[in-house]
Amino acid sequence: MSHEDAASTASVERTSEKDTRFFGQPWALTHIFGVELWERFSFYGMQGILLIYMYYTVADGGLGIDRAIATGIVGAYGGSVYLATVLGAWLADRLYGSERVLFSSAFVIMAGHIALALLPGYVGLGVGLVLVALGSGGLKATATSVVGTLYAADDVRRDSGFSLFYLGINLGGFAGPLLTGLLQTTLGFHWGFGLAAVGMAAGLVQYSIGRRHLPDSARRVPNPLPKNRMPLVWIIGGAGAALIAVLALTGVIRADNLAVLVIAATVVAAIAYFVVILRSSAITAEERSRVWGFVPLFLTSVAFWSLYQQQFTVVTIYSAERLNRNLFGWEMPVSWVQSINPVFIILLSGVFAAAWTRLGRRQPSTPVKFAIGAIVMGAAFLLFLPFAGTGANGTPLVAVIGILLVFTIAELFLSPVGLSAATKLAPARFTTQMVALFFLSVALGTAVAGQAATFYDPADEAPYFTVLGIIAIAVGVSLAFSAKPVLRLMRGVR
């Protein structure tokens, strides 16, 4: 970095608390807002057509995979995206810094979408999903961490800033499924995947222009790895890749058990992460207590995402088989249902951000917000019950719109708040990796969502929605009653 660039980024850091040019937030937020918008355009655009691409017949342009196996693959892939945040966070904290990992990850994502668009059949599916999972994992944890560098720890704008960041995510999430779904129904699946690649390319161009204006702390490596340990890293990485290849070739890793394997890997990774951070001699007693306070938030987050992420499995199947998608004689693409939730995020994220800012220190604490999110998410699943057994096209579109509105309200109580809490509770030496821990809860919930979806039966769906809804409500109520002791562990962080 040149002397001029260093002076520029230092100036950004000194004035960020007074910088209110982006809807009351630091102007540097626009650069991360933009790249995340385009990344979500490509991610959700692809994901909106992914499941139906796998289980639609070859005659309809799909791969003809068994539906239960396809839902498991979607869950495993979604879980792998968030599991890959562990690798991205480690690279950021030990080798390259968050901003550089974010930038390189965007290239990997674009390559994955190109593979889905251009490579045929199972080869394109496998290569594309692996690359998108790795790249998205690297970008997710680091983008959140970079947003965190724009605020002081006690800046009351922090939660509202993350809510605006979440708005960028959902602007992309809204447009992606609409446009890829339209191309899929008119030109074919691979045109939809190609548009996702174009969207990611647009994000790269935008971010390349603005990245030098980010604070220098976004490029800092908080816990540098000693150079003499690099050969060991390469050996471990190569051995891990070889082991996965051997397990796949010998049939241990199969399409029908991917979700279970990702669940197991995520549980092991989460436990290992908590142990490493809690036993580290580099953190203080206060930091250790805050990490313990994060544990019940982590578990509640798993329960929440286990239901929420079924938008891409059960809700997709429900939309294809149970939802009346007829609009004045024209059948709406299945993927367009995925754009309903982002519309409500766009409408409501500013409302939530303004509410948290207006309430200031009188707003509900983080554990209470998490509890409300889980309870509302469970209630959303129970709202499917009045339409159980109504048959094909038996659920009106307005009903699913209403249910997804409840999904959105639950999400805004938990997801942006969780990202913010991870940065506030993080020990100084484990900043990005604490964000990765939050994403591990999403990984575990997403993989569970894929595995749970294998039990969904459109012909007998009442037990499915009832059991999962009640479990989520019970988890939320438990956290609500435990809010005070959790806050004591959080040591002043609300």
From TrEMBL:
Gene Ontology CC entries for this record: plasma membrane
Location(s), subcellular: Cell membrane; Membrane
GO molecular function: peptide transmembrane transporter activity
Entry-linked CDD domains: MFS_DtpA_like
A GO biological process held by the record: oligopeptide transport
Regions crossing the membrane: 37-56, 68-92, 101-123, 164-183, 189-210, 231-253, 259-278, 290-308, 336-356, 368-388, 394-414, 435-456, 462-481
Membrane protein topology class: Multi-pass membrane protein
Pfam families named in the record: PTR2 (PF00854)
Keywords from the named record: Cell membrane, Membrane, Transmembrane, Transmembrane helix, Transport
The Major facilitator superfamily (MFS) profile domain, residue ranges: 31-487
InterPro entries: Dipep/tripep_permease, MFS_dom, MFS_trans_sf, MFS_Transporters, POT_fam, PTR2_symporter_CS
Family: Belongs to the major facilitator superfamily. Proton-dependent oligopeptide transporter (POT/PTR) (TC 2.A.17) family.
The protein's name: MFS transporter
Organism: Microbacterium imperiale
